[in-house]
Amino acid sequence: MAAPDPQLENLTAPDGPQPAGAAPRIVIVGGVATGMSAAARARRLDESAEILVLERGEHVSFAGCGLPYHVGGEIASADTLLVHTPATLAASLNLDVRTRHDVVGLDADARTVRVRTPDGERTIAYDALVLAPGARAVRPPLPGIDSPRVRTLRTVPDAVTLRSWVDGAARRAVVLGAGFIGLEAAEQLAAAGLEVAVVERTDHVLPPLEGELAALVTAELDRLGIAVHDGASATAIEPGDGSDVVVLDDGTRLDADLVVLSVGVRPDTAVFAAAGVATDDGAIVVDEHGRTNLPHVWAGGDAVVSTDAVTGVRRPVALAGPANRAGRQIADAILRPATARPIPAAVGTAIVRVGRLAAGMTGANRTALAAAGIAHHTLHLHPAQHAGWFPGATQVHLLLHFDDGGRILGAQAVGADGVDKRLDVLATAIRGGLGVEDLIDLDLAYAPPFGAAKDPVNLAGMAAANVLDGTLRPWHAADLDAVLASSLVLDVRTEAELATGHLPGILHVPHTELRARLDEVRAVAAGRPVAVLCQSGVRSNLAHRILRQAGFEASSLSGGMLTLRATLGRTAATRLVTPATAEVEAA
Amino acid sequence: MAAPDPQLENLTAPDGPQPAGAAPRIVIVGGVATGMSAAARARRLDESAEILVLERGEHVSFAGCGLPYHVGGEIASADTLLVHTPATLAASLNLDVRTRHDVVGLDADARTVRVRTPDGERTIAYDALVLAPGARAVRPPLPGIDSPRVRTLRTVPDAVTLRSWVDGAARRAVVLGAGFIGLEAAEQLAAAGLEVAVVERTDHVLPPLEGELAALVTAELDRLGIAVHDGASATAIEPGDGSDVVVLDDGTRLDADLVVLSVGVRPDTAVFAAAGVATDDGAIVVDEHGRTNLPHVWAGGDAVVSTDAVTGVRRPVALAGPANRAGRQIADAILRPATARPIPAAVGTAIVRVGRLAAGMTGANRTALAAAGIAHHTLHLHPAQHAGWFPGATQVHLLLHFDDGGRILGAQAVGADGVDKRLDVLATAIRGGLGVEDLIDLDLAYAPPFGAAKDPVNLAGMAAANVLDGTLRPWHAADLDAVLASSLVLDVRTEAELATGHLPGILHVPHTELRARLDEVRAVAAGRPVAVLCQSGVRSNLAHRILRQAGFEASSLSGGMLTLRATLGRTAATRLVTPATAEVEAA
Asked: Entry's SMART domains (chains A, B) (predicted)?
C-alpha cells in the first residue's frame, strides 16, 4: 500500500458489475466527507479494489464543521479534529491515502488524472474516478483582501492559525458574512474574549432564515456583545494602527486584529470543467447516481448540483450530511450498479448554535418559494419545548410554510432547547411526503422533561389544518401597514401585557371579556374587518373564532406580538406604544 | 353557565351536520386529556354549543404526567399542576365544567346520563356524549393493599399526600411496578432523599423495553441508589414497626413508610358497559371517529381500544399524547362529521427520564411482534448523539426492529442525550410508512452540538439496509450459547479493550491485523463459522466483510460487547473473562 507509485496502466473498466476476480482501481479526488465516505464504503464492499484517495491539503477526514470550535477553544486540541490519518485509514480500511496530492488534470479518454505531488507531477490511471473536490471560500475582490490578517476557515491550519492569534495579541475581530460558519466563528471569538463585529450584506443575519426568526438570533448576538452590521458590505480592508481597518459601505470603520472571511463558497471544479466535465454555474452536473457526463467519472458533495426536494431547483448544497451520504451511494453506484439506490433530492436541513440559541431550517424558505413561483401559507407558533408546567420550559419559535394541498414546504425554528428535534421531525415529514394534517397524528415521545402531550409539531399541524379548512384565518405582521389602514386591530391580551407595548389605534378587549363586549367591538369596527392579536396567537385564534361566528370578518395575527415585534425588528421601539412613550407624547 | 342545573329535556339530536341555528348540548364525561381537548375544540368550532364537562374528581385539566415531579419537589407547587380551573375555562371557552360530578348511569335511548353530585343525583340530557373516563390504577388483591401507606399516583391529591409524607417522616419507599410512572416515582423519591426499592414482576424494569436496553436503566437505578427487585412480586403488605413491610415472593421483606402502587391501569368503563356500550376486555370499542356502538355516544383516551399501527392488534393505549389529540378529533367528528379525519392507529411512542438517562420506544417491541407473528430483524447501535469529537459526546443506545421488506416495526433508545429526538424521528418515519432505506436519506439537522454528518438514525438505516441486501450478517447476544457451541468467536478489539472483559475461548485479532492473519483465523476456525465481535459493532462489521470476501462464513455481533454485556445483565460478571478472573482461575 505504501509502495512507490508506479506509472500505472489502465485496468479493465467496470461497465456494470465487475467480473469475479477483477480488481478495479478507484481513484477518489478529495479526502473528506464524500470522498472518504466513498472510499470506506467501497472497501467494505470490495476487499480486492485498489482505492486511492488524493487530497490536495495536509489532512484527510478532518472535522471541517469543528474548525470554529477550535478557534474559540471549545475544542481544545487541533488533534481532536483529525478523525483519521492516512496511516489509520491504511490499517483499518486498506486505503491508499495521499495528502498534498493536487489533481491538476483529467484525461477521460485515457482514464488518467494528472497529479501535482511534493515529489513532482505524475499520472495516475483509474477504472472509476470519484470527484469530491468540495468548494472554495469566495474571496471578494476587495482592496486589502490579501492582508495576512484576513483568513478563511476551511482547513485545520486555518483554525490553528486563528487560534494562535486568539491566544496571542488579537483583541478585535471582524467576521465578514453572517451565515452559518460566520456566526459560529463570531460566537467562538466572542467566547474567547475578543471584541467581535459581524458584517452581513443582506438585511439580516443567517440569510437563509426568515427575517422574523433571524431577529431572535440578532438579539442573542447583541446579548453576547457581538456587534451586528447587517445590510452593510465591506468596501476595503485598510492597514490601520497596529491592526487592519474594515471599511463598510455605510462609512463605518471597524478595527480588526483579525478578519474571518465567510461570505460563501463556490464549487472547486475548474480543473474538471476544463477537462470536459459538464458543469452548471461551476457545479458539476450529475445524475441521481452521481454520474457525470463522462464515462467512469462520478462526483458528489459540495462541488455538484443537487435537486432541491421542495422546489425542484438545481443548485449546489454545501452541507456535510448529504455529502457524506452521497459518498456511500456513489460507492454503491460504482460497485453495485444494478442495485444502487439514487442519491436523494436535498431537503437542505441546517442548524447553528449561537450562544444559548439554536437556529435552523429545513426545506424551502420564502425566497426559494418565491423564486420557484410556489404559492404558500405561512404560520408562526411559539409553543414551549416541553410541558409548560415543567421546570425549564422555554419557547420554540417555529415557522411553517405549506401549500393549499397541505404539502409541507419548509420549516424554521429558533429557541434555547428542542429546536433540532422539531427540525428533524419536520425534515423527516418532508422527506416522507407527509402533509400538515399528518403532523397532527405524529405520536412523539412525551414525558414532561421532553415534550408535551400536544407537541409543537402537532400544534403546527393543527394550526395549518385550520388554515386549510378555513377555521383559522391568519393575518401577517409583514402586512401590518395595510392592516392598520383597513382594519380595526383588536388586542385581546391582558392589561399587564398591553403595558409592555402595543400597536397604536387598537381596541383593547381581553379575550375573556370578548363574548360580553361584542356590541362594543361592532361599534368601533364600524364595518371594518377586525384584525385580532394576542401575545403568541392562541387567544387571538379563539377570539377570531368568536367574532367570525358572530358575523365579523375577522383574522388572527400569526405568531402574535412575538412575531410582530421580531418582524418590526429595530423599528419596534418606534412603532409600538408603551406607557413610557405615551407619557412622552402627553408631556 | 353557573346557573343551577335544571332537569334538562332532550334536545334535537345531531344526526349529521347540525341545522343552522341549532345549539347542541355536548356532554363530556372526564375533564382531562381527551375530555378537555374535545371541549376546547368543540367551543372553537361552535360558539353556540352548550358544552358540559362532568369530572368525578376535584380538578380538571390537571397535569397528570407531572404528578411524580411534585412528589419529589422538582415541581415545587401543586398549583403548577392545575393548568386550568372551571372558572378559567368558563371565562376563556364558555365551558360549563362541573367537578365532583360522577357519572353513575347512562340511558342511551333517553339520551341522558345520571350524575352523582355533592348536591345529590340528577339526570342530564345530551345531544352528543363523549366518554373520556380514563383508566383506574390496578389494585392487586394483596393482603394489606388497603394500608393507608399504600397510594396510587393518579390525582393531584395523591401527589400532595405523597409530597407531605416525603416532607415529613417518610424515609423508606417501595414502588410496586417499574413501568413509566413507577420509575418516575422512584427517581423522584430517591432525589428527595428517601431510600427506595422498586419491585417489578417481569424480569426487567420498564417491561415494554427490550431487556438489553432495560439493563442500562437498571444500571442507572443502581447509580441512583435505588434497589431493583425484578422478577419478584409482592405477596403481602404487613404492618411493621412504625412502617409497613412489603413481602416479596422471594422472601425479601422491605420496610416501607410509603408504598407507591403503579402496576398498571384498567379502563374505567363499568358504568358504561352496564349501559350497553360495547367493550372489549373492559375497553370501549370505537370506530376510527371515536364512535361507540351507541348512537350519539363517542369515546376516547385511555378507556378505549386502539389499533396498533404496526401489529394491527386492538388494545387500549394509555398515553397522554394520543388521548389529547383524540379529543380534538372527536369534537370534529361530532360537529363536522363530513370532513372529520380518522383518529390514527397508535404508534405507541413513550419515554421516561431516569436520573441522567432517557429511555423510550416507538412502534412494536419483540413481545408484540412475536404475539402478532411478525418475523423481524433486530439491530443494535451505539453511536454518539453528536459528533464524537465535539465536547459532551455520549452514546445513544439504539435498537431497530424491521422486516424483510424494510418496514420499520419498532425502535428503542436509551442514553443521556438525544434519545427523544431519535425516537421522534423514527416515530415520524413509522407514521409516514418510510422504510429502513429511507432512513439513510433523512436530511437531519447537523452542526457539531446537535448531531453528526451521519446521524444515528442514518446509521441505523445503513446498517438495516446492509442486513436486507446481505452485506451485513448479524449475530445476536441472545444466541450466545448456540454461537459459542458452533462457531469460533473472533474478538477484533484492541488489547486494552480485551482487558476490560471478553468471552472465553475467543481468538483475538485486532481488526487492523486481520488482513495479514487470515491464515491463522482459518486454522483456528477449522471449518467452523466465525462470529466476529468488537465493542459496538462497527469494526466487527468491517472484519466480517473481510472474512466473507476471503471465503469464510462470518457474522458480526449486533451492538458488540456493549449489547452483549447488557444482554447478559447480572450474569456478565461470571460469563466474561477479565484479567482479574483469569488470575483467580490460575491461582
From this structure: RHOD
What is the distance between the alpha carbons of residues A534 and A93, in angstroms, rounded to a whole number? 60
Residue A358 contacts residue A426 (beta carbons within 8 Å): no
What pLDDT, in 10s, does the model give residues A136-185? 999 999 999 999 999 999 999 999 999 999 999 999 999 999 999 999 99
- CA neighbours closer than 13 Å in the CB half-sphere of residue B52: 26
Classify domain A25-58+99-135+267-335 by CATH number: 3.50.50.60
B415: contact with A, CB 8 A cutoff: no
Q: Nine-digit cell at B418?
A: 438525544
| pLDDT confidence of residue B13 | 37
Size of interface A-B (CB pairs under 8 A): 265
Asked if the interface predicted TM-score (ipTM) of this complex is over 0.85, the answer is: yes
Tell me which chain B residues have a C-beta less than 8 angstroms from the C-beta of A437: 341
Within 8 A of A309 by CB-CB distance, chain B residues are 443
- What residues have CB less than 8 Å from A319, skipping those under 6 apart? A346, A348, A349, A350, B443, B446
List all residues of chain A from 21 to 50 with a beta carbon under 8 Å from chain B: 33, 43-48
Helix, strand, or coil (residue A405): coil
Segment 330-389 of chain B within 8 Å of chain A by CB: 339, 341, 344, 346-353, 358, 360, 362, 387-389
- Picking from A302, A444, A458, A472 by the largest number of B CB atoms within 10 A of its own CB, the best residue to mutate is A444
CATH number for the domain running over A350-468: 3.50.50.60
CATH of the structural domain B150-263, one choice from 3.50.50.60, 3.40.140.10, 3.10.20.580, 3.40.50.2000: 3.50.50.60
Report CB contact under 8 Å: B423, A445.
yes
Q: What is the mean pLDDT of residues B145-151?
A: 97
CA distance B184 to chain A (A): 10
Asked, colleague to colleague, whether A25-58+99-135+267-335 and A474-586 share their fold, the answer is no
Phi first, then psi, for residue A385 (nearest 5°) are -75, -25
Per-residue three-class SS string for B316-329? ECCCHHHHHHHHHH
| CATH architecture for segment(s) B25-58+99-136+267-335 | 3-Layer(bba) Sandwich (3.50)
CATH architecture of B474-586: 3-Layer(aba) Sandwich (3.40)
For chain A, give the mean pLDDT.
Answer: 94
Q: Is B406 helix (H, G, I), strand (E, B) or coil?
A: coil
B311-332 mean pLDDT: 94
Range A225-229, long-range pairs (CB < 8 A, 24+ positions): A225/A190, A225/A195, A225/A196, A226/A186, A226/A187, A226/A190, A226/A196, A226/A197, A226/A198, A227/A196, A227/A197, A227/A198, A228/A178, A228/A197, A228/A198, A228/A200, A229/A197, A229/A198, A229/A199, A229/A200, A229/A254
Q: Are B426 and B408 in contact (CB under 8 A)?
A: yes
Confidence at residue A23, expressed as pLDDT on a 0 to 100 scale = 86
Q: In what order do the strands lie in the sheet with A195-200?
A: A150-151, A258-261, A172-176, A195-200, A227-230
Q: Is A550 on the interface with B (CB under 8 A)?
A: yes
Distance CA B153, CA B183 (A): 12
Give me the amino acid identity at B103.
V
Strands B234-239 and B128-131: unpaired
Amino acid at B215: A
Q: A91-118 burial, b for 16+ CB within 10 Å, e for fewer?
A: bbbbbbbbbebbbeebebeebbbbbeee
Predicted confidence (pLDDT) per residue in A8-21, tens digit: 433 333 333 344 45
Measured CA to CA, the distance from residue B41 to residue B38 in angstroms comes to 5
Cα distance between residue B451 and residue B463, in whole Å? 18
Mutate to test the interface with A, among B335, B443, B549 (most CBs of A within 10 A): B443
Reported as a single tens digit per residue, the pLDDT across A302-337 is 999 999 999 999 989 999 999 999 999 999 999 999
